[in-house]
């Protein structure tokens, strides 16, 4: 889950696994798998960075649990 910002500065959380694609028009249009969409203030690069950071956290948590389970 990542935090994005609507055009009216309202923050919301989206499941990044449900994003189908992102358009730049000039803001970012995040289109979901169910074809709903959100216009957000973040650039495509910022959204990709947020997804990468979230995935890194999840992998780190998994690694930590795996290490603790092996003890």
Provide a descriptive summary of the structure in words.
The chain has one helix at residues 44-69; strands at residues 2-5, 11-14, 19-24, 28-32, 37-40. It has 71 residues and is an alpha+beta fold. The strands form two sheets. A three-stranded antiparallel beta sheet has the order 3-4-5, with no helix packed on it. The chain has a two-stranded antiparallel sheet with strand order 1-2. It is elongated, with a radius of gyration of 15 Å. The chain starts with a strand and ends with a helix. The mean pLDDT is 90.
Short account of what is shown:
With 71 residues, the protein is α+β, with helices and mostly antiparallel strands.
Q: Which key phrases capture this entry?
A:
single chain, alpha+beta, 5 strands
What overall form do the CA principal axes indicate?
elongated
Number of strands: 5
Characterize the biggest β-sheet.
Answer: 3 strands, antiparallel
Q: Spans of 5+ residues with little confidence (pLDDT < 50)?
A: none
Average pLDDT, all residues:
90
The proportion of residues in beta strands is 25-35%
Strand-pairing-aware structural class: alpha+beta
Distance between the termini: 30 Å
Order of helices and strands: EEEEEH
Number of helices: 1
> Helical content, roughly?
25-40%
Instruction: Going across the biggest sheet, name each strand in turn.
Output: 3-4-5
Give Rg in angstroms.
15 Å
